Amino acid sequence: MTNRREFLQTTAAIAGSLILPKAVLATPALNFHFIHADTLNSWPVADPVQWSLEHAHEPILARAAEGLSKLTANDADRIIRLVVRRCSLNLLELQPARVLVDHWGSHRANLKPFFKAHGLARPEIEVVLKDQKHETVITLTGDSFLYGVPIAFDFDLEIFQSKRERRFVNESDDGMAVPGTSSLFAWNGLPDGSIPWVALKSAWRRSGGESCLNCTGETLLVNFGLRQVGVFNRSGFVEHVCGACRRSFRDETVDVKAWMAVNLDEVVRPDAEMVWGRRVARTTKGHT
Ligand SMILES: [Zn+2]
Question: What is this structure's pTM?
């Protein structure tokens, strides 16, 4: 944990330009952006201190207006602290290979959309999160702001890709279990929870992949089913991966039975559902 002096020294050292004389900013570049922590609206500013003083009367700065009226451009640090604290704003400074983020405690914006739009979600970008409330500094890398989670190192992406390419072809091993699947559904002849290739092939035939949230790649369905939530509840999920950025995306808001009705041919829908460790036959596959 840093103390206040260390925090100020650290932030001054890395922020730099905020405490430089105005003359240094004679040719302002739009390296600063405000982003609202709730709406995620963002806008570039040449000089965040000057911008705050000049726009103090506007609704977005209403809660800082009184304080701003007592400050001048010489109070740079206090002005940034004030608008970040009172107005749910984050201030981002884009430096070469580095992004500095001023925020107030938990009022930190979801930075993923901004990082994607500006091409910043990369491992070589250093991201310095400066929490003005707790006076702490956290340093991350830009890829921390990618959507999804990294694919497991031993995930066999190639077998999924080659199976998908042959989704219109019947193969002798299509009835076998897809590696890594677990679903709380069961198919006759397969281990509990395992999904057969025929089911994935059916879904692949019915709908293409979706656009990756991170890159220009297209995602590939690799798993679906129910998962146990607490003792008594179960909830659906559908999981896709992007081979280009090697991230996995799991939608846990989906109604998986409705999803199966749309995405799986009737003949490949599960034969049973796992309930308290036992297979309970689904009376009719067509009735999901
Ligand atoms: Zn991707």
Answer: 0.74
